[in-house]
Amino acid sequence: MTRSARAASERRGRWGEMAAVWTLRAQGYAVLERRYKTPVGEIDLVARRGRIVAVVEVKTRTDGAGELVGARQRHRIERAAGALLRRRRDLANAAVRFDVIIVLPWRLPRHLRDAWRPDR
User: Fold this and answer.
1) Positive or negative CA dihedral for 110, 77, 8, 30?
2) Under CATH, which number does the domain 3-116 receive?
3) What is the mean pLDDT of residues 93-120?
């Protein structure tokens, strides 16, 4: 991938995350974290509504093709969520859910609640 293609992809991803933030806010969520990084992985968004804490992966696409969240990526996100919960004691009693928000051109973002559950 060329430098300009990477830059365009980065801009598209940031735009998608902003669209996802507004989608969550419109649904009554408070966005707690954006691009939360840990040594074990990154979480795009962390949002809370009542007792529910949504760990959100944002997928910005130019078309609807492609797998949403692969097994390795899910595992990294789950590990990052564990690190977040250890750090944020105020979330200790929250019900954690893993969501995906899909952002496609010229469409409203689509929020897939409880998109997957960790393998335990």
Assistant:
1) positive
2) 3.40.1350.10
3) 91
